[in-house]
Specification:
heterodimer, A: alpha/beta, six-stranded mixed sheet, 26 helices, about 20% strand, B: mainly alpha, two-stranded antiparallel ribbon, 11 helices, 2 strands, about 70% helix, flat
């Protein structure tokens, strides 16, 4: 039985500026969702996924205005006419940003807020709160303030708050997009618990292909305002033409399967690590048994030892030897007198490095990199950039050499036009007007923002605002570019485009520092990786070495990307530490298949 | 610091357990009496009393220091202006042109300035020990519409969030070369423009998201809203409230019959 039925749904937002054209977002959506189904919605940023979700709970068009036509039916109601607050009892929604959906002082009050609004009796509210917190694994957090919770915990509270209203349909709009790996894990664990209970129909918007594959019964891919295809995860992820057309993320193991299929004529269609392990283990074991190459088994793991990274770290000591661009010595930083955010970091970053800084929230990543552009000054110790101590340099002076792109674009957008926004940084550097014009034009072109040059950046969609914020720093031409979570809020194709630009900058000799939780980005792009843990450096070295240090990564609560995990599970078959990328894995696979390993 | 802006300090002291309506009555009566008072000794007593009460309830001394810190500039400004614009009526120990400073206007200036601190502490007596849900609940029981109480609670809830957003915006703009070091106040104000505008845009966006979240959580769905946490006046709350009313009536009577609190240094007329 369909709980959601959409036919030929069209929707356009009102024009952004007086006299402008309405912004058409949905252009003929047709969708049916069955009771108890888990449907994931994928597609590029700005394609209309959130608008579609809001059309299901009535916010579109009741709160947003605009023009709607076609039909929508959710649980037998028409969301266009049923008041949002009335429909909220049956259709729950969890948004991406936990900060703007938690407004009470305790977790318990937060979860009780919905049932209270529905006029549920106090005793029943109490029972619902206990149940909902139990489902998301937050039973012991009832008296805590949401302010004191981590991102993952906040989002779990938001899910519990929706659940307590006993919705029949739960919409999750990128529920884990802004979270660190532990936060994501916690949220997806809560979603898994929900799936097991199977009380609700779930519609989840997500760019996270790995989890989409893990949970979804079906995946719907949106493109140009309509659904390009709806199918099982395997059907969607192995539809190459659809992927080429739309450009959405697919699980790394599915990319691997396609690479193996095209190179070795296999017919793999795995979308999850366990499926991949099972299929590869079976096939390789059969082949190895056939060849009786028992020595492959006895050779054991060829994973690089952790000493390699440590030796590499020690080699960094000599500034001159290594041509260090940034160097820290016994760097301590304290926000207050309680726990130091950094405790004696010694680090040397070479010129033209392509460095990933990873670690959990609160591990000191951002505190460390804020020392590189002088936003923070050491409580103790010293930081040198280009051989100059940052102690005596202002942020403005360091901005000539160090560009910093913050995670949230709204923290820097303030100008009346995109052109002005991008020109702000170069002007602050005191560049001549013609140089500023040239730089802005180039940045607009590089990031495909030329059509929006005269548009106020604040009214652009999130993906475009993110591009504006990056272009604004790019136009300053810093020798060192720090990007804080570059992939958050961007779809797969935009991320690829952005990273292609970043790669070009690196090839031109710039030093790139990525602060990120996206381990796939780390594995596929960076050359060096620095793992921060509890304010110190846990390990630092070449990325392919660090990603093999399973113990250290576990200690820092970082999950390696899918292929690294798969290779780790298959070490007994002879996979080695180079099998961290699709290409590396294919090579290792070929060698094993042919008995060379 | 951000937790400081959250105002409420969780705890289970006598003050935390006290019914919020009793605390609200104390705050209301305290403010009213303080505004009728400019006696230095009584204001110092009120300051000592509220601070002792807060400390006895386990409120962190850092919070009290924070109240002093945020009210100090206003207090200093009031004290100075008072002394400058209200020449002392009696003997002056400093006289220059229109400026006449004597013990009378000096004491009065200090008293009026400290009254700001005392008013703040009386209000924080209520806010430091009452979480926002209960605060709203108490205002609703006193007849305030729920949405008004919720608005007040959310304004308090978002103070720490906005403070941290301000810091992040300031960092992001400085990283693009914005210079905030200007000493000239006009130049400084202009330098803060990018931060102010970005802050406003962020605040509007947060408000929009918040309103959607509130609607999605069924705000206004039922004409009769229920509450998980119920308020019950205990006998000790009633005694406390009666005590407050009694003390307030006595002080008022003394104020209007004997002039208690009407003079900066003398207790009565």
């Amino acid at each position: 039985m369909s709980v959601v039925s959409i036919r030929n749904l069209h929707y356009a937002y009102d024009p952004l500026l007086p006299g402008g054209e309405p912004i058409s977002v949905l252009r003929g959506v047709d969708l049916d969702v069955e009771q108890g189904e888990f449907l994931s919605l994928m597609g590029p940023t700005g394609v209309g996924k959130t608008t579609l979700c809001m059309a299901l709970n009535g916010l579109v068009p009741q709160a947003t205005g605009g023009h709607i036509r076609g039909s929508v039916e959710v649980l037998g109601c028409d969301p266009r006419r049923t008041p949002v607050e009335e429909l909220a009892a049956r259709v729950g929604i969890v948004y991406q940003d936990p900060e703007s959906q938690l407004f009470c002082t305790t977790v318990q009050d937060e979860v009780a807020f919905g049932p209270e609004n529905l006029g549920v009796a106090a005793q029943e509210i109490k029972e619902r709160v206990e149940w909902a917190l139990n489902v998301v694994g937050m039973s012991s957090y009832g008296d805590r303030s949401p302010n004191q919770l981590s991102g993952g915990e906040k989002q779990r509270v938001a899910i519990a708050a929706s659940l307590a209203m006993m919705p029949e349909v739960l919409i999750l709009d990128e529920p884990a997009a802004s979270l660190d790996p532990v936060g994501r894990f916690q949220v997806f664990e809560a979603i898994e618990a929900l799936c097991q209970q199977r009380r609700v129909t779930i519609i989840m918007v997500s760019h996270d292909a790995e989890h989409v594959a893990q949970f979804s019964d079906r995946v719907a891919v949106m493109w140009e305002g309509r659904l390009a295809r709806v199918g099982t995860p395997s059907e969607i992820f192995f539809d190459r033409s659809l992927r080429d057309q739309v450009g959405f993320a697919i699980p790394q193991v599915s990319t691997l399967a396609m690479a193996l299929n095209s190179r070795y004529g296999t017919a793999y269609r795995f979308t999850r690590v366990d499926e991949a392990e099972e299929a590869l283990r079976r096939d390789i074991a059969e082949q190895q048994a056939f060849r009786k190459t028992s020595e492959v088994y006895s050779s054991g793991t060829a994973w690089p030892q952790s000493a390699s990274a440590n030796e590499w770290m020690h080699r960094q000591d000599g500034l001159e030897d290594f041509g260090s661009l940034i160097r820290t010595q016994d760097l301590w930083y304290e926000y207050d007198a309680t726990i130091p955010a950094l405790n004696g970091v010694d680090l040397s970053i070479p010129d033209n490095a392509y460095l990933a800084v990873v670690g959990q929230n609160g591990s000191g990543k951002t505190t460390l990199v804020k020392h590189f552009n002088g936003l923070l000054k050491p409580t103790r110790g010293e930081v040198w950039v280009y051989g100059r101590s940052t102690e005596s340099a202002t942020v403005g002076e360091l901005a000539h050499q160090v560009g910093y792109v913050f995670q949230n674009p709204d923290h820097q957008i303030f100008c009346a036009t995109t052109w002005e926004e991008i020109a702000f940084g170069p002007r602050n550097l005191g560049l001549a007007p013609e140089t500023v014009r040239a730089r802005v034009s180039e940045a607009l072109e590089t990031f495909s923002l030329t059509p929006y040059a005269e548009t106020p950046p604040a009214v652009l969609g999130y993906g475009l605002r993110r591009k504006v914020s990056i272009a604004a720093v790019y136009a300053m031409r810093p020798q060192i570019l720090i990007l804080d979570e570059p992939s958050i809020g961007l779809d797969w194709r935009s991320t690829q485009e952005l990273m292609a630009r970043v790669d070009e900058l690196h090839d031109q000799g710039h030093t790139i520092i990525l602060v990120t939780h996206d381990m796939r980005l780390v594995a596929e792009y960076t050359r060096q990786t620095l793992v921060m843990h509890e304010g110190g450096v846990l390990t630092y070295g070449p990325t392919e070495v660090v990603l093999c240090q399973t113990e250290q990564l576990k200690q820092a609560q970082i999950a390696p990307p899918q292929i690294a995990r798969l290779a780790g599970r298959l070490t007994d078959l002879g996979f080695n530490g180079q099998a961290l990328s699709v290409e590396g894995f294919c090579v290792a696979y070929g060698e094993l298949w042919e008995g060379k390993a | 610091m951000s937790l400081m802006y959250a105002l409420y300090q969780p705890g289970d002291s006598w003050l935390h357990r006290l019914d919020p309506r009793a605390k609200l009555l104390f705050a209301f009566c305290g403010c009213f009496l303080l505004l009728l008072n400019k006696n230095l000794w009584l204001i110092l007593s009120a300051l000592a009393l509220t601070q002792l009460a807060l400390l006895s309830a386990g409120i962190d001394w850092k919070r009290l220091a924070w109240v002093w810190r945020i009210t100090a500039p206003t207090m200093m400004m009031i004290a100075v202006l008072w002394v400058v614009f209200y020449p002392t009526p009696g003997e002056a120990f400093l006289s220059w042109r229109f400026l006449r400073i004597g013990i009378h206007n000096l004491a009065e200036g200090v008293a009026v300035a400290l009254r700001i601190g005392a008013l703040a502490f009386v209000l924080f007596f209520w806010l430091f020990s009452t979480d926002q849900t209960i605060l709203v609940r108490s205002l609703v029981t006193l007849g305030l519409p729920y949405t008004w109480g919720l608005t007040l609670a959310m304004a308090l809830r978002y103070i720490p969030t906005m403070t941290s957003t301000f810091r992040m915006i300031s960092d992001a703009q400085q990283a693009r070369g914005l210079d905030l070091s200007a000493r000239n106040p006009i130049k400084r104000a202009r330098a803060y423009m990018p931060i102010t505008v970005a802050m406003l845009i962020t605040a509007f966006r947060t408000a929009e998201n918040l309103s959607r979240a509130l609607q999605s959580r069924a705000l206004g769905a039922s004409p009769k809203r229920t509450f998980l946490r119920q308020l019950h006046l205990r006998p000790c709350d009633i005694v406390f409230m009666a005590g407050i009313v009694l003390v307030a009536v006595v002080l008022l009577w003394l104020r209007f019959t004997m002039g208690l609190g009407a003079y900066p240094l003398r207790l009565v007329g």
